[in-house]
Design brief:
The chain is mostly helical. The protein is built from 6 helices and no strands.
């Protein structure tokens, strides 16, 4: 399977190169866990899915405040727009690489109602802070899910270079977006902990179930990223 135009990643990480944003990595184990972990701890973690709870700081400032770049808002806008523009192509390429029966029974096999996905209840009238927190939760979940899907495809379709490149680039862009949202939440609202949920791991499942779970998640991703772009982009547009 192949795609004519692989997606270009805009990583835009706003943390120094000696720090790493919580990926989770391609071999991350996903589970619906809860807990409390501050942003700066997340910046130093890899491979382990965690969760935190929103906490407003009344002290001197947010831990990640000094890590923001001057163009962080524009960079975030570009990343969201890119993910929205490439989501459908990623889903279509994924379907093509899974073969039958996924190509002919897409509606039945890829119905996203069967997979966990974080609630997304904000709209265009929501407060900007509420939108930013909801976006952070959404993209942290998507980043972990993309890592899960990429790991499975490396096992099931190791020669599907175009698909693997597309998955890697999308994950890279999502990681950069999470870093930028972290900075915006810290800088503008002094928020440094966010409650995050992760989906079910596909480890130990059959090849068919792995393909199906990836198909369901990516189809939901296409739907949600379009909604997220409509809601978030106006908040990030220049005055």
């Amino acid at each position: 399977c192949s795609a004519p135009r692989p997606a270009q990643a805009i990583s835009g990480s706003t943390v120094p190169t000696n720090h790493h944003w919580l990926g989770p990595h391609r071999d991350a184990r996903l589970s619906p866990r809860t807990g409390v972990v501050p942003f700066m701890a997340l910046l130093l973690l890899q491979r382990r899915p965690v969760a935190g709870r929103v906490l407003l700081v009344t002290g001197p400032g947010c831990p990640g405040h000094g890590l923001c770049r001057s163009n962080v808002q524009e960079q975030t806008r570009r990343q969201v727009a890119l993910l929205n523009a490439t989501a459908q192509d990623l889903f279509s390429l994924y379907l093509k690489c899974q073969g039958e029966p996924f190509s002919s029974e897409t509606d039945k096999l890829c119905n996203p109602g069967g997979v966990f996905f974080p609630a997304f209840r904000v709209n265009q009238t929501s407060e900007r802070k509420e939108v930013m927190v909801a976006m952070y939760k959404l993209f942290a979940f998507l980043n972990a899910s993309l890592g899960n899907i990429t790991r499975d495809q490396e096992e099931l379709n190791p020669t599907a270079k175009e698909l693997l490149d597309r998955l890697h680039n999308t994950t890279k862009t999502t990681r950069g977006l999470i870093s930028n949202l972290t900075c915006l939440l810290c800088k503008n609202y002094n928020v440094f902990q966010v409650d995050v949920s992760y989906g079910e791991s596909s480890k130990g499942k059959s090849a068919f179930k792995k393909k199906q779970q990836g198909c369901q998640v990516l189809r939901k991703y296409v739907q949600v990223i379009a909604q997220a772009a409509r809601i978030l982009l106006p908040h990030l547009s220049p005055p």
